[in-house]
Design goal:
Layout (H helix, E strand, L loop, with lengths): L18 H22 L23 H4 L1 H7 L4 H16 L35 E3 L5 E3 L1 H7 L5 H16 L4 E7 L2 H4 L11 H19 L2 E2 L1 H11 L13 H15 L8 E11 L12 E10 L18 E4 L11 E5 L3 H11 L2 E6 H6 L1 H4 L8 E7 H5 L8 H13 L4
Parallel strand pairs: 3-4, 3-10, 8-9, 8-10
Antiparallel strand pairs: 1-2, 5-6, 7-9
Helix pairs in contact: 5-8, 6-8, 6-15, 10-11
Length: 418
């Protein structure tokens, strides 16, 4: 006999639907029905973590079909952005601290339209946070700190692989250029909090990295030029709420890459401010604050000192994007490929002005599908690898994997530059 059918005075009697059960059922109904009804009436889930929404898992993924289902269900929950913002507001209002949102296992990092940088998870229990709140409302990407304190590969091994990559490229008559984009925490450390997890170990790792990387791996050190650009602008050139540099950083990198490809080519380059662009800052959504706007300074770039050739470029670098420009003074004539990351988004409009024939692609996508994309290198005379500091210091660049280096070498040896 079901317990609900027992006499009420019986010690085992329990109503089929008690008050607590009814409350739970109503809450469950609201939880599932509200998003569903919202979807029916046009509401759609939004990308609030600077990455595409997780796709529906494939049956071909094996057990991955079940393990990836949770992320898909979470991403596609309608009104999720409002719920995250509400939770953060309640936590700050009642407890005076941010809600621990997005601090668990999440392999994504802040990126632009290009493919994600594949940063590893940030575990709150270790003391590291996905977003570090600095003084005056400044935000920093937490992996700037964690990657330096908990590297996946020793710096010695990373430098050895980069030198191997350089040898593979230069042995076929090509020019090799390695550019490191400094972390925001490296260039604008004055707004970091006084105390935070990993302060000592990250500082030590950062100093060692910048002492060794230019000297031992031949990396282009952008820091002096970035500091000079910040002084000229009269402000930091990394925005308050975003982990990438502003337009000044894009100009600095474009000039450095052009000089490395053909020394002296930028002697006639002139720049001047030319409007602004507005977009979403990448760090607030990672901590449950919702979207916030950032302003990027745009520049005119005249390679010959007269004609502005800076222009927007298709920045979906998950696939190769080729841009061409008329040859002339101040323009690098060599056919060039740049395998970069999300910092290349802002830089691309200035690279387009300074190179006659340039192919751009995100290095993560290039490496993941190396067999399909390695042929892009065949006719290139200059090969540029551009990577953010945090990924290199942590030893997490896919371009340094043996499989990728080996495949690049095969293609280049089969197509030497004479």
């Amino acid at each position: 006999m079901h317990e609900s059918r027992l006499p009420q005075e019986h010690p085992l009697h329990r109503p089929r639907h008690g008050g607590r059960q009814l409350t739970a059922l109503v809450c469950a109904l609201v939880f599932f029905a509200a998003p569903t009804l919202g979807w029916v009436f046009g509401a759609r889930p939004a990308e609030i973590e600077n990455r595409p929404l997780a796709p529906f898992p494939s049956l071909g993924d094996g057990w991955g079909f079940f393990t990836n289902m949770s992320q898909w269900a979470t991403d596609h929950l309608t009104f999720r952005e409002g719920a995250v913002s509400a939770a953060d507001g309640v936590s700050r209002g009642l407890f005076g601290e941010p809600a621990p949102l997005g601090q668990g296992k999440n392999p994504q990092g802040p990126v632009g339209p290009a493919a994600p940088d594949q940063e590893p998870a940030t575990d709150q229990s270790s003391g590291f946070r996905k977003v570090l709140e600095g003084r005056g409302g400044w935000l920093y990407f937490g992996y700037d700190i964690e990657g330096k304190c908990v590297p996946a590969r020793p710096l010695d091994a990373t430098i050895a692989q980069l030198n191997k990559l350089r040898s593979v490229v230069e042995a076929t008559g090509r020019r090799f250029v390695l550019v490191v984009e400094p972390d925001k925490s490296t260039m604008v450390p004055e707004h970091l909090p006084s105390h935070y997890a990993g302060k000592d170990c990250s500082t030590q790792a950062r100093e060692e990295f910048w002492r060794r990387m230019p000297a031992e791996a031949g990396a282009v050190d952008l820091r002096p030029a970035l500091r000079k650009a910040a002084e000229a602008a009269g402000r930091p050139i990394y925005p308050k709420l975003d982990t990438h540099w502003d337009g000044e950083g894009g100009v600095v990198m474009a000039r450095a890459v052009a000089e490395a490809a053909r020394p002296g080519v930028t002697e006639r380059w002139t720049t001047e401010r030319r409007g602004e662009a507005r977009s979403d800052a990448d760090l607030p959504p990672l901590m449950g604050r919702g979207k916030a706007e950032k302003t990027t300074q745009l520049y005119a770039l005249r390679p010959d000192g007269e004609h502005d050739r800076a222009r927007p470029v298709d920045t979906d670098f998950r696939k190769p994007v080729r841009v061409t420009s008329e040859q002339g003074p101040g323009v690098v004539p060599e056919r060039t490929i740049l395998l970069g990351d999300s910092f290349s988004i802002i830089t691309s409009r200035y690279l387009a002005a300074g190179f006659a024939d340039l192919t751009l692609m995100n290095y993560v996508d290039f490496a993941q599908k190396i067999d399909a994309h390695a042929s892009l290198l065949a006719d290139r005379q200059v090969v540029v690898f551009s990577m953010v500091e945090r990924n290199l210091v942590a030893g997490r660049s896919p371009l340094t994997e043996d499989r990728v280096v080996e495949r690049i070498g095969q293609v280049l040896r089969a197509n030497p530059i004479r």
